[in-house]
Amino acid sequence: MLKLVGRRLAWAPLILLMISFFVFTLVDLAPVDPAVAMAGNNPDPALIAQLRHDFHLSDPLPVRYVRWLGHALHGDLGNSYFTRQPVGRSVLDMLPINLSMMLVAVVMILVGGVLLGVLGALRPGKILDRLVTAGGSVAVAVPPFWLGLLMVLYLSVFHQVFPAIGYVKFSTSPWEWLKHLLMPGFALSTLPIATVALQLKGSLTETLGRDYILTARAKGLASKTIIFKHALRNAAIPVLTVFGLQVAYIIGGSVIIEQVFGIPGLGSYLITAAQAGDINPILGVVVLSTMVVILMNAAVDIAYGFLNPKLRA
Amino acid sequence: MTVDGALLLDVDGLTVEFNGPNGWVRAVEDVSFQVHAGEIVGLVGESGSGKTVTSLGVLGLTRAQGGRMPHGRVVFEGTDLVTLDDKALNRIRGRRIGMVFQQPIRSLNPAFTIGEQIAETIRHHEGISRSDAWARTVTLLDKVHIPEPAKRARQFPHEFSGGMCQRAMIAMALSCSPSLLIADEPTTALDVTVQAVVLDLMREIQAETGVAILFISHDLGVIADMADTVAVMYAGQVVERASVEELFISPRHPYTAGLMAAVPRVGQGRQLVAIEGNVPDPGNYPTGCRFHNRCEHAVAMRCDTDLIPLLPAGEAHDSRCVRTSELMLEGVVVA
Amino acid sequence: MSLLEAKHLTKRFAVKRNLFGRVTEWFTAVDDVSFTVEQGETLALVGESGAGKSTTGRMALRLIEPDMGEVRFEGEDLLALDGPAMRKRRQDMQMIFQDPFSSLAPHRTIGEAVAEPLLVHFGMGSKERLAIAAGLLDRVGLSAAVRERYPSELSGGQLQRVAIARALTLEPKLIVCDEPVAALDVSVRAQVLNLMHDLQAERKLAYLFVSHDLALVEVIADRVAVMSHGRIVEEGPSAELFRSPKTEYTAELLSAVPRPVPRSLRAPATTLG
Ligand SMILES: Nc1ncnc2c1ncn2[C@@H]1O[C@H](COP(=O)(O)OP(=O)(O)OP(=O)(O)O)[C@@H](O)[C@H]1O
Ligand SMILES: Nc1ncnc2c1ncn2[C@@H]1O[C@H](COP(=O)(O)OP(=O)(O)OP(=O)(O)O)[C@@H](O)[C@H]1O
Ligand code: SF4
Ligand SMILES: [Mg+2]
Ligand SMILES: [Mg+2]
Question: pTM above the 0.90 mark?
Answer without folding.
Answer: no
